Amino acid sequence: MINVRQATERDAEGILEVHVRSVSEICGSHYPPEQIDEWAGSKTAEFFRASMAEGEVFVVAEADSRIVGFGVLADAELRALFVDPQNTGKNIASQILEMLEQMAIEMGLRELHLKASLNAVEFYRRKGYHGEKPVGHELASGTKMACIAMSKVLDSGGVS
Fold first, then answer.
1. To which H or E segment does residue 89 belong?
2. What is the per-residue pLDDT across 62-76, written as a single tens digit (0 to 9) for each?
3. Which of 33, 29, 20, 41 is nearest to 119 (CA)?
C-alpha cells in the first residue's frame, strides 16, 4: 500500500535516493550522460532540508516504510516529481501530483506551472497540463537542459 504524506526533514535522505535513482535510470533516454550525471549529483540531503526550511512543500510516497517517490511545490510552481524506478507504473506519480494540486488549491493558488523534463511531458499532458514552449532548466554548473514549460488551471471544486 502506498501512503502519500507531507515530508519532514527526516525524509531528506530517502528523497535524495529517489532523486538520484530516478534521474539516473529513467531520464537517460532523453538527455546526454553528462547532463544526467550533473543532474543526479547536483543535490544533497542538506539541499532538500534547506529547501523545506525555506518553505518549499515536499510530499513523499511511502511503501513498506520506504520512500518511493516525492514531489515539491514552491509558490505556484511544481518544482519536482520523481518516482523510484522500481516503482514506476504503480500510480505513485499520479497520487503525489493529486496531493500537490490539492495543497495548491488549499493555498489559494488558481494555476500551477512547471518545467517538464522531456521524459515527463506526456505524463503531464495526461494530467491536464498544457504547453509546448521549450525552456531551459539551469543546472548547478550553468548548463541548461531542455524542458517544456507547462501549466494547468486548478478548479477549487476539484482539480480540473
1. none
2. 999 999 999 999 999
3. 29
- pLDDT tens digit sequence for 27-81: 988 999 999 999 998 899 999 999 999 999 999 999 999 999 999 999 999 999 9
* Exposure on the CB side of residue 122, measured as CA atoms within 13 A: 2
Confidence of residue 159 (pLDDT cuts 50, 70, 90): very low
Q: How far apart are the first and last CA of the chain?
A: 26
Beta strands 111-117; 77-83: pairing state: parallel
Return the pLDDT at 140: 80
So where are the chain's domains? Answer: 2-109
User: Would the pTM count as exceeding 0.90?
Assistant: yes
Residue 31 grid coordinates: 538527455
CB crowding 32-67: b at 16 or more within 10 Å, else e: eeebbebbbeebebeebbebbeeebbbbbbbbeeeb
Query: 3.40.50.300, 3.40.630.30, 3.30.450.150, 3.40.190.150: which CATH number matches 2-109?
Result: 3.40.630.30
Length of the chain (residues): 160
